[in-house]
Design brief:
The chain has 440 residues and is mostly helical. The chain has helices spanning 3-19, 23-45, 50-73, 77-80, 83-98, 120-133, 137-163, 166-178, 180-186, 192-211, 215-231, 233-249, 255-274, 281-288, 291-303, 318-334, 344-347, 350-358, 360-373, 375-395, 399-405, 407-439.
């Protein structure tokens, strides 16, 4: 491990304990325990690139913990992510019921414990953490930061498996580690970072299973999908379709490869059915695919805040949904626009937005290369990214929400950007070598 990183980690722990006393002690212990587990898994599973992956993980962890500590000390949760306060209250209420402190279940918070309610997994996760640490939002937030940082080595692994290029993997991982939006949404007690981690984990496991059947990978894939549906149900169905498509198409048509893919699909389906994932699937899909419901939700998003857009769009019909796609796609991928920034919350995103816009040529170049030369191996991330992009383009109507949800797509788009950047670098290097050769 890099000595400088080790020193920074030590100083980060001291800062948490001193600047957020007394919650900081428990939070620092939580980070230490979870980080050691992540490092152990990295060393055990990725021996060849272990040192690089650990360094990427620690860099990502330090910036997320720093951000989280700042919002905790200066009480900026309402500014950056007000949902965290709600998760804190519901999680604590669930602990009270579990331990018999207050077993009344007719209050508003207790109604959130039903597993048919959207996002119920977050409440149970917070309650599980509070059962160990006591009510400590900094500890729960720090746990999310560790998971967000663990996404970085997973992105490296996923990109490396698809493109078989260490430079592509490293650039993809660095973008996820240091990109402001990922730091903001995974450095707080929010489900966004958890969802992104589970998505990357699921796609990586699909790639591993296409190479070799491992029962552990199947179980872990089922767990990741179960986690996704407990946090944001509609993403589960898109991820599941992408995974099924990847297994059907596959990277090889040999009988052994087809048997591996079929076995993985059957075992995963049986496991998810056992855990009751399919129980409410009919009503979930009906609600999610109901254009009138989507229109109602979209109208609320577009009109409930100053950053709403497309208030005149009507997606309650198929024709209206298709007509809304160009506007929705533009805002989802490019907003917030500099000329629309009317407050401090939007203004601080300007450097990030300019960086994102400047990377679009590399994104297009990398995407074209991927479709031409790596289509089979990239099917899961291509299908998932396309479906989620189209869905969000139709039913999002608020710039802030689009900026936040975009990270679930960007985590895979960064891989294409890394490919485009690598192609540009390689062309530049080849050009320089030719010029030197001519001079000689």
């Amino acid at each position: 491990m890099n000595k400088r990183l080790a020193v920074l980690c030590f100083l980060m722990g001291i800062a948490m304990m001193l600047m957020a006393f007394p919650e900081g002690f428990v939070a620092a212990a939580t980070v230490l325990l979870c980080s050691l587990m992540v490092i152990f898994i990295i060393r055990r599973q990725f021996k060849e690139d272990a040192n690089l992956l650990i360094q990427l993980f620690l860099v990502a962890l330090i910036v997320r913990l720093t951000f989280g500590l700042l919002i905790h000390i200066f009480d900026l949760r309402a500014f950056f992510g007000g949902d965290s306060r709600f998760y804190d209250r519901v999680g604590q209420r669930l602990v009270e019921i579990w331990f018999g402190y207050n077993i009344e279940t007719n209050d508003a918070l207790s109604q959130k414990f039903n597993t048919s309610d959207s996002g119920w997994g977050m409440y149970y996760l917070v309650a599980a953490i509070y059962s160990i640490t006591g009510r400590n939002i900094l500890a729960a937030q720090s746990f999310c930061a560790v998971i967000g940082a663990a996404t970085v080595p997973m992105v490296y692994t996923c990109a490396h498996k698809i493109f078989n290029n260490r430079r592509v993997g490293k650039i993809s991982a660095l973008l996820v580690a240091l990109y402001p939006a990922f730091i903001i949404w995974s450095g707080q007690l929010l489900k966004d970072g958890l969802i992104i981690f589970l998505l990357v984990l699921a796609m990586t496991l699909v790639l591993r299973l296409q190479e070799k059947f491992r029962l552990f990978d199947v179980v872990l894939l089922g767990f990741s999908l179960f986690g996704i549906i407990s946090l944001r149900f509609y993403i589960f169905y898109m991820a599941a379709l992408a995974i099924v498509g990847a297994f059907v198409i596959g990277t090889s048509n040999s009988p052994q490869a087809m048997m591996r893919r079929m076995s993985a699909l059957v075992l995963m389906g049986v496991g998810l059915t056992y855990f009751g994932v399919t129980r409410d699937s009919g009503s979930d899909i009906e609600n999610f695919a109901n254009l009138e419901r989507i229109q109602s939700s979209r109208k609320d998003l577009a009109s409930s805040a100053e950053s709403g857009y497309g208030q005149d769009l009507d997606v309650s019909t198929t024709e209206g949904a298709f007509a809304a796609l160009p506007v929705g796609l533009t805002y989802l991928l490019l907003a917030p626009f500099p000329w629309q920034m009317t407050n401090w919350r939007q203004a601080i995103t300007l450097p990030e937005i300019l960086l994102w816009w400047s990377s679009i040529p590399f994104l297009l170049s990398g995407l074209w290369y991927t479709i031409r030369y790596r289509l089979r191996s990239s099917i899961p991330i291509l299908v998932f990214s396309l479906m989620l992009t189209l869905a969000y383009s139709i039913f999002l109507g608020n710039i802030g929400t689009a900026y936040r949800q975009r990270t679930q797509i960007q985590v895979f788009l960064f891989m294409f950007i890394a490919v485009g950047w690598t192609l540009w670098q390689e062309r530049s290097e080849n050009k320089n070598l030719l010029q030197k050769a001519r001079r000689k």
